[in-house]
Design goal:
By secondary structure, this protein is an all-alpha fold. The chain has five helices and no strands. The N and C termini lie far apart (47 Å).
């Protein structure tokens, strides 16, 4: 039973770390690239969807939480996908 608590805590900590290490960078990049983007108008809704999506795909994104180079590539790819570039 204790192993599930440890695994759950690790998953939750990685999820929170992914959000705080990527969300604000992505929003800043969107502000620079497209200041009139709908993402910026509905920032809270975007944050909720971002958190939920990260919760689903946390395991494949573990490297993003710990590597600055991979995080940079993830943020660039995410912003390009959101802005359809």
């Amino acid at each position: 039973m204790d192993i599930f608590v440890v695994l759950g805590a690790g998953y939750l900590a990685t999820w929170v770390m992914l959000f705080y290490r990527t969300y604000f960078i992505c929003v800043r990049m969107i502000q620079i690239e497209s200041p009139n983007s709908i993402i910026l108008k509905y920032r809270m809704l975007h944050a909720i969807f971002f958190v939920l999506a990260l919760g689903i795909i946390t395991l494949p994104l573990i490297k993003v939480a710990f590597s600055d180079e991979i995080r940079k590539r993830f943020c660039i790819g995410y912003v390009n996908a959101i802005l359809e570039k």
